[in-house]
Amino acid sequence: MLLLGEPFSAVDETNRRLLERKLPGMPGRTILVTTHGLTPEHLLQYDELLILQNGAPGDALRTGAYRQLLQ
Questions:
Q1: Structural domain boundaries of the chain?
Q2: pTM exceeds cut of 0.90
Q3: Spatial separation of the C-alpha atoms in residues 64 and 51, rounded to whole Å
Q4: I want to staple 15 with a disulfide (CB 3.0 to 4.6 A). Which of 7, 11, 41, 64 is the partner?
Q5: 6, 19 in Cβ contact below 8 A?
Q6: Angle of CA points 70, 23, 51, to nearest 5°
Q7: Where are the beta strands (DSSP E) in 1-71?
């Protein structure tokens, strides 16, 4: 399991895009990313998203794949 907290906040745009492409493509790994800013292109790569309110798992608003959450 790979747990990353705000991994895109302290990198330049080039490295941010690199991370956005590489992280979801790591086979056989569970990756948990907490962040405030992801592009729609990046969100499409993840199997499951958990949208939180107030930052607590008990306050989960919705879960599912990105396309499912848009409906």
A1: 2-70
A2: no
A3: 9
A4: 11
A5: no
A6: 30
A7: 2-5, 31-34, 49-52, 60-64
Greatest CA separation for the chain: 35
The tokens describing 44, both together, are 């499409």
Q: Which two tokens stand for residue 68?
A: 């499912």
DSSP 55: T
Q: What is the pLDDT of residues 31-58, one digit of tens each?
A: 888 887 777 888 888 888 887 777 666 6
List Cα–Cα distances, 24 to 17, 56, 61, 71, in angstroms: 12, 24, 23, 23
Q: How far is CA 24 from the centre of its chain?
A: 9
